[in-house]
């Protein structure tokens, strides 16, 4: 039951994946600042950004060799009840290696797992 609507029905979630040089700006930002103006908020820390819409029961496999400047993969998820959600997470990644990240979405939260 991911991202329940007012009626309790599972709903799609917009998920953004960022490749970052540092987590300082990402960790300091609130959801709406990141969601509405991520490029300016993350500034020079932002290496790459991708956005996906994940439907309940769906998945997106992100397998990518990150460039040497990327130190972290970070994710935000636009849950309907954002004030009660665990809406962001991050993981350090080794440079110049293919990294597989699984983003687990549940009722009102996300968790990241490196493989």
Can you describe this structure?
- With 115 residues, the protein is mainly β.
- The protein has one domain: Immunoglobulin-like (Sandwich), CATH 2.60.40.4150.
- It is built from two helices and seven strands.
- It has helices spanning 24-28, 31-42, and strands spanning 13-20, 46-54, 62-65, 72-77, 88-92, 98-106, 109-114.
- The strands form two sheets. It has a four-stranded antiparallel beta sheet with strand order 2-1-4-5, covered by helices on one side. Strands 3-6-7 form a three-stranded antiparallel beta sheet, with no helix packed on it.
- β6 and β7 (109-114) form a beta hairpin.
- The protein is globular and about 45 Å long.
What does the main sheet amount to?
Answer: 4 strands, antiparallel
CATH topology: Immunoglobulin-like
Total number of distinct structural domains: 1
CATH-defined superfamily: Type VI secretion system, lipoprotein SciN
Average predicted local confidence, pLDDT: 90
Q: Separation of termini?
A: 25 Å
Describe the strand arrangement of the main beta sheet, using strand numbers. Answer: 2-1-4-5
CATH architecture: Sandwich
Q: Return the string of H and E elements.
A: EHHEEEEEE
| CATH level-1 class | Mainly Beta
Structural class label: mainly beta
């Amino acid at each position: 039951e991911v991202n329940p609507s007012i009626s309790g029905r599972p709903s799609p979630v917009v998920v953004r994946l960022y490749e970052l040089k540092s987590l300082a700006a990402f960790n300091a930002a609130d959801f709406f600042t990141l969601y509405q103006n991520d490029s300016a908020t993350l500034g020079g820390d932002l290496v790459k950004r991708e956005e996906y819409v994940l439907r309940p029961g769906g998945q997106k496999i992100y397998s990518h060799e990150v460039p040497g400047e990327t130190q972290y993969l970070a994710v935000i998820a636009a849950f309907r009840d954002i004030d009660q959600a665990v809406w962001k997470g991050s993981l350090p990644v080794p440079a110049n290696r293919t990294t597989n990240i699984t983003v687990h979405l549940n009722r009102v939260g996300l968790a990241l797992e490196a493989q």
